[in-house]
Amino acid sequence: MIRWMTSGESHGQALTAIIEGLPSNLKIDTEEINRYLAYRQSGYGRGARQKIETDMVKILSGVRNCLTLGSPVCLMVENKDYKNWEEYMSPYGADVTARRLTRVRPGHADLSGVLKYDQTDARNILERASARETAVRVAAGTIARMFLRELGIEVCGYVRSVAGISDDKEYTAAQLCDVKNSELFMPDPVLCEEAKRRIEQIKEEKDTAGGIVEIRVNGLKSGFGSCMSYGEKLDGHLAGAVMGIQAIKGVEIGLGFEAARKRGSEVHDEIFFENGKFTRKTNRAGGIEGGMSNGEEIILRAAMKPIPTLMRGLNTVNFDTGEACRAATERSDVCAICACEIVVESTVCFALAQKVQERLGGDNMREIIERYQKL
Ligand code: EPS
Fold it and tell me: In the prediction, which pLDDT does 247 show?
């Protein structure tokens, strides 16, 4: 299986990812990676940190002349902000008395992390728990996207709901191709303007907002995942990967939670045989039945909670003294739903690439493409 691992702190020198198990001869387009990194930084409601950073990937190993070698690929995204933090974050001796965080933020990793890792400074927790890490996950996920594209599998997505403004209309993947031009990745410009006004209002109230993103996968043939081994279910694998993203509190596939409120006849997709092919006229299952892809479009939604750093600070305690206080604030995004959409898309790309490669095997792209075409 293709595996990945990331390292890096929010205000450390850089974020890195190592991807192991990629086949050889996969074409790598660095500009596309940088485009997705820019998308991750975009969106209405972002905070001051994004003005400091212009995320760009540097490929350190595993690629020669724009083609993978089959060896581990190492990616790096630098933190420009490190120059402002070196004094406090340097691995070689740092001032750990300054920038200490003790007024732990409800909803963040601060308190549970301090207790678990026996720390006296929540900075040692939040630096890693910060969603800044997702920058390099997007870089690695975009490589997985290139792998999938070679097989004819395309992944896209949009923002379905933000700050309580929801778009319940149904869109085809083709209708979503320009959605990244929208300031909130919302296809409906009227709802987008309404959501922007809502975010402004939330900002004035020194509060934060979450939302729901929807991801679509087209071109995945049937039979990926398993109905035999529960640990290998495609829905379980995708949901587990997406729940591994900071701030995600829920994942649903197809009708998801709505299916529980409906009757069987309103939920299950009837099967037909037309022109020598099995077909369905509906896709309420979201492309996955019995833990396996069924050849229909995969539809996955993820719910992002509002960012836990509120400029007005929630009630908490100072863990040094046990005294009641307001939670720490530095700077924060009011809403990072566009970043979330890109991170979920990229994570789905990676998790899918893993399942595809697991079933097909193969050491080089030619072998893998041939095997996929034969399915
Ligand atoms: C983020 C960078 C971080 C946060 C945010 C995500 O930068 P800084 O902490 O320097 O402002 O803005 O992380 C969080 C919301 C969080 O709670 O940690 C990024 O690049 O996405």
Answer: 96
Gap from CA of 23 to ligand 1 centroid (Å)? 33
Beta carbons within 8 Å of 57's beta carbon, 6+ residues apart: 30, 33, 34, 37, 75, 76, 77, 139
**Mean pLDDT rounded to a whole number for the chain:** 97
* Full-model pTM: 0.97
Asked whether 331 lines ligand 1 (CB < 6 A), one says: yes
Backbone phi, psi, residue 303, to 5°: -105, 125
| 10 ligand 1 Cβ < 6 A | yes
Q: How many CA atoms lie within 13 A of 105 on its CB side?
A: 23
C-alpha 134 to ligand 1 mean position (Å): 10
Quick check: 286 pLDDT over 80? yes
User: Tokens 């996968």, residue?
Assistant: 217
Ligand 1 centroid–CA 334 distance in Å is 11
Mean pLDDT value across residues 185-202? 97
Q: What is the pLDDT of residue 330?
A: 77
Q: Give yes or no for a contact between 246 and 131, defined as CB atoms under 8 angstroms apart.
A: yes
d(CA 177, CA 216): 11
